Amino acid sequence: MSNAVNTAEAAAPTGGPEPILRARRLVKTFGRVVGLDGVSMELYPGEVLAVIGDNGAGKSTLIKCLTGAEIPDEGEMFLDGQQVHFKRPQDAREAGIETVYQTLAVSPALDVASNLFLGREERKKGILGSVFRVVDKKGMREKAKQNLSALGISTLQDVTVAVENLSGGQRQAVAVARAAAFGSKVVVLDEPTAALGVRETNQVLDLIRRLRDNGTAVIVISHNMPNVFDIADRIHIQRLGKRAATITPQSHSMTDAVAIMTGAAQA
Q1: pTM, rounded to two decimals
Q2: From its phi and psi, is residue 77 left (phi > 0), alpha (psi between -120 and 50) or beta?
Q3: pLDDT tens digit string along 18-76?
Q4: Using an 8 Å Cβ cutoff, are 251 and 232 in contact?
């Protein structure tokens, strides 16, 4: 195994920007079950950080703590250098952290534009919006087109199409575009290529690259090692509730990563 990275704290950019999101020594227990055991993590602006680990390693618990779905028992979290205390997902969203879960949480019966603004519907200006609360469908559709275009999503030309008529990859694109539109700082993607074909997987990976190129920090949770090594700048490895290592695709191979993840080797 390469000696380029030999501690769990390594592989962080040196002399560069401060982390946009940082977790320090997070602890989360569920009765006698330890979900997180002093986990630290750093996410830098404009990077893709993959989080990998075996089942029960604490990946989901870590992400839930970072996005407000769980409250850590101990530890600290910082966003843009300021300490944050998320008590619910809405707190994280308002702070600029958007999450796309594996279930996507899109509404199949609604069209693309309505899904992008789901829960954030914009009303018409003037008395129609303020008094009669009329939704500005035309304005939302125009903004939806702009958001999709900014991310280079060319497979969704018609934003009036119901999501139930879209392919799996297109639905994923809608969910990611919604997160990108409102997640001004961090976008978290949970298994974004699960159950997708090769072509649609490549489209989603391209979408993640565009998010990064646009300066958005991205966390990707994935079991797909080839995808992880294709897309990630750094890889955070969870094992038994702890951070086993933080590596890069340049310093370690997929075999190395799996060995660290399973405990067969140390970084």
Answers
A1: 0.86
A2: beta
A3: 999 999 999 999 999 999 999 999 999 999 999 999 999 999 999 999 999 999 999 99
A4: no
Phi, psi of 195, deg, nearest 5: 65, 20
Q: What is the rounded end-to-end Cα distance, in angstroms, of the chain?
A: 8
Query: Which amino acid does the sequence have at 30?
Result: F
Within a domain: 172: no
Tell me how many domains the chain contains. 1
Does 250 map to a domain? yes
- Token duo for residue 111: 């069209």
Residue 247 in any domain: the answer is yes
Alpha-carbon distance values, 25 to 38, 73, 240 (Å) = 4, 10, 14
Q: Please tell me the distance from the alpha carbon of residue 67 to that of residue 181, in angstroms, as a whole number.
A: 17
User: Is residue 83 domain-resident?
Assistant: yes
Provide the CATH number for the domain around residue 266. 3.40.50.300
Domain extent at residue 46: 1-12+32-96+217-267
CA angle in degrees (0–180, nearest 5) for 222-85-235: 25
